[in-house]
């Protein structure tokens, strides 16, 4: 990459990306443009501007992407009831395609030759960033320092920062207990004691949620209003997508909702233990399935459930911008036309309990479903022929003496 003159760096202002910034300047002798995204991680992003300026950066992008993140990435994902490997709500995964998109947009705006990120060579994020970048700009050059340099420990990074007078706060030599990633959808924890799969996570690790044991003794009731599969109001108050998720995080966190401790299969081949806090997302998943239960046709609902694991895998492995994900999204979005109405939830000590759902588009007919006299709305005698026809193949096999196994 000797011809690289300008690079757009995904920059947080922390240790890793600050070292990367200096390393890019020295190794590639190139100009660096920094891009810092506010995805609702709960930390001040403006200090990154001063740090970048101190290191000679002339073009600095600090973008508030919270609304775009929830509206165009989180909401579409939740329309599919997306869960990876049965549990993970993909909080880190779904943020990466937006960051990749903005990196490419800035590269186009500034005439940069390449982009760079701080993902390691062991993780999924390198794949997600780069698949997204190549899908949006096929000829872009990607610089991944963790796959090139020999600064493979925190101490080496700190020593490099000190040697090159990079403005980093040094808190002694002790390693940070966890590697964390946060945005409006979740906060994740890896490393430290979590690398022993038998060791229980520490209670003081959690940032957003109280423990279920410490949650209020009285339940909290909320009502979520849906329009075409998306939450548009909480307790009758209209909110933007980002406001919805922020409020559900607050309410869920107060009630001990959304903690998860799992071992997942990374795309690069290894297993990894992670802990996650996704209070708002946990509520959203439960509520969305509830409103779909009365508004979706049976076969449409079942087909969505069959396709969801594939959709989840595409997001987890970085194929958000792939033609197959886009095709699936069109089908999913089409299914949401009549997913309108209100869901009432009871939140209690880590639990999300559906206690009511209503919709003008509901397919639930009490006159048919009732256990009381239905006044002829459903002829129960019809069930006999239905059952015999569905049993026909088994009756034939049994009549010929076929053994079941």
UniProtKB/TrEMBL annotation:
Keyword Nucleotide-binding included in the entry's annotation: yes
Associated pathway: Amino-acid biosynthesis; L-arginine biosynthesis; L-arginine from L-ornithine and carbamoyl phosphate: step 2/3
Keyword ATP-binding: yes
PROSITE patterns (UniProt xref): ARGININOSUCCIN_SYN_1, ARGININOSUCCIN_SYN_2
EC nos: 6.3.4.5
Enzyme class, UniProt record, top EC level: ligase
Subcellular location: Cytoplasm
Main location: cytoplasm
Signal sequence residues: none
Binding-site residues for ATP, renumbered to this chain: 10-18, 37, 118
Catalytic activity as recorded in UniProt: L-citrulline + L-aspartate + ATP = 2-(N(omega)-L-arginino)succinate + AMP + diphosphate + H(+)
Sites where the protein binds L-citrulline: 88, 93, 124, 128, 179, 188, 264, 276
Xref: HAMAP family: Arg_succ_synth_type1
Family statement drawn from the similarity comment of this UniProt entry: Belongs to the argininosuccinate synthase family. Type 1 subfamily.
Subunit structure comment from the entry: Homotetramer.
NCBIfam families, A to Z: argG (TIGR00032), PRK00509.1 (NF001770)
Protein name (Swiss-Prot/TrEMBL): Argininosuccinate synthase
Gene: argG
């Amino acid at each position: 990459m000797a011809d690289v003159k300008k690079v757009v760096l995904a920059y947080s202002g922390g240790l890793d990306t600050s070292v990367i910034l200096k390393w890019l300047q020295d190794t590639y002798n190139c100009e660096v443009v920094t891009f810092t995204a506010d995805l609702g991680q709960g930390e001040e992003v403006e200090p990154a501007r001063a740090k970048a300026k101190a290191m000679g950066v002339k073009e600095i992008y600090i973008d508030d992407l919270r609304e775009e993140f929830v509206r165009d990435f989180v909401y579409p994902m939740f329309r599919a009831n997306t869960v990876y490997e049965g549990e993970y709500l993909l909080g880190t995964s779904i943020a990466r395609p937006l960051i990749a998109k903005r990196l490419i947009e800035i590269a186009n705006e500034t005439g940069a030759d390449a982009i760079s990120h701080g993902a390691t060579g062991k993780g999924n994020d390198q794949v997600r960033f780069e698949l997204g970048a190549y899908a949006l700009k096929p000829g872009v050059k990607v610089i991944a320092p963790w796959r090139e340099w020999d600064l493979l420990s925190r101490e080496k990074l700190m020593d490099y920062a000190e040697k090159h007078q990079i403005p980093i706060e040094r808190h002694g030599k002790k390693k940070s207990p966890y590697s964390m990633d946060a945005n409006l959808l979740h906060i994740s924890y890896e490393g430290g004691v979590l690398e022993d799969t038998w060791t229980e996570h520490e209670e003081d690790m959690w940032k957003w949620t109280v423990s279920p044991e410490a949650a209020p003794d009285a339940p909290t009731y909320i009502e979520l209003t849906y329009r075409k599969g998306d939450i548009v109001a909480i307790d009758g108050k209209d909110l933007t997508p980002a406001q919805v998720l922020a409020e559900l995080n607050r309410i869920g966190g107060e009630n001990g909702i959304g903690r998860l401790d799992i071992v997942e299969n990374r795309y690069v081949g290894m297993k990894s233990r992670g802990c996650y806090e996704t209070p708002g997302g946990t509520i959203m998943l439960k509520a969305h399935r509830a409103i779909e239960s009365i508004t979706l046709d049976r076969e449409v609902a079942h087909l969505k459930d069959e396709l969801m694991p594939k959709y989840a895998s595409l997001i987890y492995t970085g194929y958000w911008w792939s033609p197959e994900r886009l095709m699936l999204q069109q089908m999913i979005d089409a299914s949401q036309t009549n997913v309108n109405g209100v869901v009432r939830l009871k939140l209690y000590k880590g639990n999300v309990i559906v206690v009511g759902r209503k919709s003008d588009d509901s397919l639930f007919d009490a006159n048919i479903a009732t256990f009381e006299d239905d006044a002829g709305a459903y002829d129960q005698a019809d069930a006999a022929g239905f059952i015999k026809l569905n049993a026909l193949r088994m009756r034939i096999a049994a009549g010929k003496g076929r053994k079941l196994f």
